[in-house]
């Protein structure tokens, strides 16, 4: 029997299969191999001593350590127009890590009733990142989010106070009922919201990830300087067209990326974020790079 892990608590895992949610433990072999199953993992279950055990974990498309989850398709980067003030650098760092891990970032702008969304919209207009403006008065943007969720495993991340819970509740008014239903099945009295929990909704899956509230780019991933240009997908058409191979796109003559920027084909804030990220990693030596990210 196969399924995917919806939640893991205290060494137990809850696996959604075609026959419902099954509580199980991983086989001892995983501990020996130092592999920890995480929410989102696709697993094969077998019966051992009358109980279900995780016998195999399918190869992961990607994995995050904090919050622990695997096989993410879409990361919604939630930013508010104000309160808190948005930072394109933070958004660009997180989106770069997402792209580097093969996750589609989608920028979601909240609190459009409190301040203009124009600053954020124009920052992403020349990027390839989808930009969704939410307006609860008209319902604008909510269908776009539902479309992105359809058929995919998604998570929401953003600073405290940007409006993630508000958005989730607007999308899924019965979220509390679902949470209750799932925790009842979990039994054992372990009712906690600290763990990643995956819900099914809108033809896809949403990971409720408390940890993504404080997702810190520096902990979530490390992109070496050679990889950085690929984490800004809109640079793609210009890569390889620079005069010098190995061009860092900062000050070299004949740089096609800078030419595109000068022609207004690229966003200045995105380019500035690229340069800031490049500066942060340019002197990090091979042996100093964080492992396992
Ligand atoms: N005016 C306005 N207020 C909003 C909007 N979205 C959220 N808020 C308010 O902003 C505050 C924070 O919203 P939350 O949904 O709790 O934010 P969060 O991102 O879940 O915050 P954490 O739980 O701390 O991570 C609440 O008082 C919300 O009512 C919006 O679109 N417009
Ligand atoms: Zn260049």
UniProtKB/TrEMBL annotation:
<dbReference type="InterPro" id="IPR004881">
    <property type="entry name" value="Ribosome_biogen_GTPase_RsgA"/>
</dbReference>
<comment type="function">
    <text>One of several proteins that assist in the late maturation steps of the functional core of the 30S ribosomal subunit. Helps release RbfA from mature subunits. May play a role in the assembly of ribosomal proteins into the subunit. Circularly permuted GTPase that catalyzes slow GTP hydrolysis, GTPase activity is stimulated by the 30S ribosomal subunit.</text>
</comment>
<keyword id="KW-0690">Ribosome biogenesis</keyword>
<comment type="similarity">
    <text>Belongs to the TRAFAC class YlqF/YawG GTPase family. RsgA subfamily.</text>
</comment>
<keyword id="KW-0479">Metal-binding</keyword>
<dbReference type="InterPro" id="IPR027417">
    <property type="entry name" value="P-loop_NTPase"/>
</dbReference>
<feature type="domain" description="CP-type G">
    <location>
        <begin position="61"/>
        <end position="215"/>
    </location>
</feature>
<feature type="binding site">
    <location>
        <begin position="110"/>
        <end position="113"/>
    </location>
    <ligand>
        <name>GTP</name>
    </ligand>
</feature>
<dbReference type="GO" id="GO:0005737">
    <property type="term" value="C:cytoplasm"/>
</dbReference>
<dbReference type="InterPro" id="IPR012340">
    <property type="entry name" value="NA-bd_OB-fold"/>
</dbReference>
<dbReference type="InterPro" id="IPR031944">
    <property type="entry name" value="RsgA_N"/>
</dbReference>
<feature type="binding site">
    <location>
        <position position="255"/>
    </location>
    <ligand>
        <name>Zn(2+)</name>
    </ligand>
</feature>
<dbReference type="GO" id="GO:0005525">
    <property type="term" value="F:GTP binding"/>
</dbReference>
<dbReference type="GO" id="GO:0042274">
    <property type="term" value="P:ribosomal small subunit biogenesis"/>
</dbReference>
<protein>
    <recommendedName>
        <fullName>Small ribosomal subunit biogenesis GTPase RsgA</fullName>
        <ecNumber>3.6.1.-</ecNumber>
    </recommendedName>
</protein>
<dbReference type="Pfam" id="PF16745">
    <property type="entry name" value="RsgA_N"/>
</dbReference>
<feature type="domain" description="EngC GTPase">
    <location>
        <begin position="70"/>
        <end position="213"/>
    </location>
</feature>
<keyword id="KW-0342">GTP-binding</keyword>
<feature type="binding site">
    <location>
        <position position="242"/>
    </location>
    <ligand>
        <name>Zn(2+)</name>
    </ligand>
</feature>
<dbReference type="GO" id="GO:0046872">
    <property type="term" value="F:metal ion binding"/>
</dbReference>
<dbReference type="GO" id="GO:0019843">
    <property type="term" value="F:rRNA binding"/>
</dbReference>
<feature type="binding site">
    <location>
        <position position="249"/>
    </location>
    <ligand>
        <name>Zn(2+)</name>
    </ligand>
</feature>
<keyword id="KW-0547">Nucleotide-binding</keyword>
<dbReference type="InterPro" id="IPR030378">
    <property type="entry name" value="G_CP_dom"/>
</dbReference>
<comment type="subunit">
    <text>Monomer. Associates with 30S ribosomal subunit, binds 16S rRNA.</text>
</comment>
<dbReference type="Pfam" id="PF03193">
    <property type="entry name" value="RsgA_GTPase"/>
</dbReference>
<keyword id="KW-0862">Zinc</keyword>
<keyword id="KW-0378">Hydrolase</keyword>
<feature type="binding site">
    <location>
        <position position="247"/>
    </location>
    <ligand>
        <name>Zn(2+)</name>
    </ligand>
</feature>
<feature type="binding site">
    <location>
        <begin position="158"/>
        <end position="166"/>
    </location>
    <ligand>
        <name>GTP</name>
    </ligand>
</feature>
<dbReference type="InterPro" id="IPR010914">
    <property type="entry name" value="RsgA_GTPase_dom"/>
</dbReference>
<keyword id="KW-0694">RNA-binding</keyword>
<keyword id="KW-0699">rRNA-binding</keyword>
<keyword id="KW-0963">Cytoplasm</keyword>
<dbReference type="GO" id="GO:0003924">
    <property type="term" value="F:GTPase activity"/>
</dbReference>
């Amino acid at each position: 029997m196969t399924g995917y892990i919806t939640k893991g608590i205290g060494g137990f895992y809850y696996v959604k299969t075609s026959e419902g949610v099954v509580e199980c433990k991983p086989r001892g072999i995983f501990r020996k191999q130092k592999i920890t199953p995480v929410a989102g993992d696709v697993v094969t279950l077998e019966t051992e001593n009358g109980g279900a055990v995780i016998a195999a974990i399918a190869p992961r498309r990607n994995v995050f350590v904090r919050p622990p989850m695997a096989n993410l398709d879409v990361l919604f980067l939630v930013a508010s127009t104000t309160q808190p003030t948005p930072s394109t650098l933070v958004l660009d760092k997180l989106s770069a890590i997402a792209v580097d891990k093969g996750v589609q970032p989608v920028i979601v702008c909240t609190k459009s009733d409190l301040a203009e969304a124009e600053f954020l919209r124009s920052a992403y207009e020349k990027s390839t990142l989808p930009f969704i403006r939410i307006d609860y008065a008209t319902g604008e943007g909510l269908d776009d989010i539902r479309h992105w969720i359809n058929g995919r495993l998604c998570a929401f991340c953003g600073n405290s106070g940007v409006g993630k819970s508000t958005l989730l509740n607007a999308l899924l008014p019965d979220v509390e009922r679902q949470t209750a239903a799932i925790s009842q099945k979990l039994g054992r009295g372990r009712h906690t919201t600290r763990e990643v929990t995956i819900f099914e909704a809108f033809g896809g899956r949403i990971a409720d990830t408390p940890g993504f509230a404080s997702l810190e780019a520096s902990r979530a991933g490390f992109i070496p300087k050679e990889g950085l240009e690929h984490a800004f997908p809109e640079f793609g058409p210009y890569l390889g067209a620079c005069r010098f191979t190995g061009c860092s796109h900062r000050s070299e003559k004949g740089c096609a990326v800078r030419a595109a920027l000068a022609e207004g084909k690229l966003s200045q804030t995105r380019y500035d974020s690229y340069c800031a990220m490049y500066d942060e990693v340019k002197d990090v030596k091979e042996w100093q790079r964080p492992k396992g990210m």
